[in-house]
Amino acid sequence: MNFGVIGPGKMGQLFIRDFNKCGAKLTYIKASSIKRTNKIINKFQNETKINNNINFLDFLIISSTTNTHYKYINKFYTKKKLLIEKPFFFCKNKSYDWHLNKAKIFLKSKKCIDINLSNYLLGDAYKSQKFYKEKKFKKFFFTFHTGGKNSYKFIILDLMPHFFSIIQRLSPCKSVKIIEKKVEQFKTFLILKVDNYICYVDLREKQKIKKLSFGFDNFILNRKQILNKKTLKNYLYNKKHNLKIEIPNPLNKFTDKYYKNIRKNLVTFKKKFIYENFKLTLKTYFFKP
After folding, report:
1. pLDDT band at 175 (very low <50, low <70, confident <90, very high)
2. 3-state helix, strand, coil in the chain (%, to 5)
């Protein structure tokens, strides 16, 4: 199957790496300029012949800057199977309701539209554990520090989809209330009440030290601990929990599942999951406590 990438930056090139491993064939690249497009084509030309004709693609990855997503989705969603790097889309001068109405149009089209919400796998890992099933916890903590280039409220658009992709697997998210929201230049802190849980969310970008951790009450897991089987085994033994968590890098597993699904003309997520994730992210962006 042939695929193309609009926006072959850091995430775009990770998608290229993973889909090449799946057996897909990269045939189209569009970067922010002709010069950069040619540079990226030359980088991958030894691995595959890139003719750069968008008409012959089976699926298209949109991983460009967020403010361009709507333009490309609107142009291609009826013509190509789409995988979109989160957030779904965002237009700066448009309202909360406008975004939701456009999302409904895209998602009700019965076309193949998927969003990279790969960290749902971390929620699934938690959900399968004995201590989670006992439901004795009251607090949820989520920390994500990245080297991203966003600032102020745009950090919410970039990183909250990760938080909601996890919590959507752990709780219905029927009630989400913003208790506190502090927005600074390179960091945002939120306290939310999601159903019966109080959630503490610490988001930061332009950070030299990157960090992703999440957990209930006093039980916090690092993604590195989840990915490293030996470290995780020792960690969990010391915590005296009967846990068995073994998942690879969430993005690797997500792209593998996405590729298998589109070969069967399926989507990875139910569109309701995508819509609710988008709606909840926008809510934390637009609304005050």
Report:
1. very high
2. 45, 20, 35
In our burial notation (b when 16+ CB lie closer than 10 A, e otherwise), range 91-127 reads: eeeeeeeebeebbeebbeeebbbbbbbbbbbbbebbe
Q: Domain 120-286: which topology?
A: Dihydrodipicolinate Reductase; domain 2 (3.30.360)
- In angstroms, the CA 82 to CA 76 distance is 8
pTM for the predicted model, two decimal places = 0.89
- Phi first, then psi: give them for residue 141, nearest 5 degrees: -120, 135
- Phi/psi for 183 (5° steps) reads -115, 120
Q: Which residue has the higher pLDDT, 123 or 95?
A: 95
Q: What is the largest CA-CA distance in the chain?
A: 56
Give the C-alpha separation, 287 to 272, whole Å: 22
- CATH code of the domain made up of 2-116: 3.40.50.720
Type and span of the H or E element at 282: helix 271-286
